[in-house]
Amino acid sequence: MLIQTRREAVGAWRRLDRRTRHDLLNSRTPHPDPRIAAIAAAYAGASLGRAAALRRAVLPTLWTTLILVTATVAAVVVEVTSGSKTGFTILPLLTVGAIVVYVWRLMRRQIALTRMETLNSRSLPVAAPPPMPSGTPSGGEPLVVGYDFKALRGSWALSAVLIIGVPAVAIAIGRPYIYIPMTIAMGAMAIFTIVSTARVVARRKTPVLVLDSTGVSLPHHDFTVPWPQIATVRVLPMPRGTGRRGEHRVIVFVPVDNQLILQSAPPKLANSMRRTMGYYGSPIVVMDKGLSAGAEEIVHASAALGGVQAERTGAAPTP
Questions:
Q1: What is each CA distance from 244 to 12, 112, 284, in whole angstroms?
Q2: Residue 176: strand, helix, or coil
Q3: Transmembrane residues, as ranges (predicted)?
Q4: What is the H or E stretch that residue 286 is in?
Q5: How many helices and strands (H and E) does the chain possess?
Q6: SS3 87
Q7: Is residue 259 classed exposed, middle or buried when 0-12, 13-18 and 19+ CB atoms within 10 A define those classes?
Q8: For 48, which DSSP code?
Q9: Does residue 144 or residue 85 have the better pLDDT?
Q10: Could you tell me which CATH number the domain at 143-147+207-312 has?
Q11: Which residues have a Cβ under 8 Å from the Cβ of 133 and sit 6 or more positions away?
């Protein structure tokens, strides 16, 4: 089943019954019916494309504006009718809560679409050159990918500003119902930042990823996946991710058999891979943010060393 446009993908998706759509969005395995799997992959690709990204940027803005206007009108009505300023007191909390819920649901939807596309993409016939066979010998140089501390400085600086600045501003306002939740949230963020930074520092001498003639290696776990077990490499956009090399990307190595990878991985790594599969539909995922090599370098190394071609989200269906 060849789906060439976004309209065709959306139309085919809507013709599926509600139960099937729900199962596809929540499944951790490819759909057994190739036709339905192709529809799911095409719809997910269309929903994650550039046009959909623009809608994801516009909709939260409109939603936030609607919430602010509605909450403000409600607060004014309460004050006019009863003379109470309670509405204006709880207005910030209601607004922030509504925005958080909306963003959380939006993120869950994007994760589900990404996972659905990765799992079912093999059933989507796309007009493209045939991929090189995996495991093709090559004289390419191995690619060793480690942490780039210069790239991580910006994230650490932003975290420091938020951790120190937000509670300071909230305390300056002098309202406990604002600064207490803010201080707790920023305290949790501080703990997360310290733990993640300590992990990066502890692993600074160990590469994150190594691509060579044998396959894809994760040196920290002493685990290697041979090239014949890698079907393709998918490059996904990373929301709001921009660095000195340009936009950040998520690189998904799609195995021929996910379960085979999980069974051969060490127990601790296998548990982590299962969680990763819940997000991306694949156990081997790398984000190039904060790494010494970008997505394009990793993709080129995969093609040169293993003959594995890349797929890019949203490339098949067009608006």
A1: 40, 29, 25
A2: helix
A3: 57-78, 90-107, 156-173, 179-202
A4: strand 284-287
A5: 10, 8
A6: helix
A7: exposed
A8: T
A9: 144
A10: 2.30.29
A11: 307
Please calculate the CA angle 170-183-69 and round it to the nearest 5 degrees: 50
Is the pTM value of this prediction over 0.85? no
Tens-digit pLDDT profile for residues 257-308:
888 999 999 988 999 898 888 888 888 998 887 788 888 899 999 988 988 8
List pLDDT tens digits, range 242-256.
555 556 788 899 888
Sequence-distant (≥ 6) Cβ neighbours of residue 98 within 8 angstroms: 67
Burial class (CB in 10 A: 0-12, 13-18, 19+), 171: middle
Question: Where in the chain are the domains?
Answer: 1-127, 143-147+207-312, 149-202
Do 283 and 193 form a contact (C-beta atoms < 8 A)? no
Query: Which residue type occupies 22?
Result: H
Question: Counting every residue, how long is the chain?
Answer: 319
| Residue 175 scores a pLDDT above 80 | no
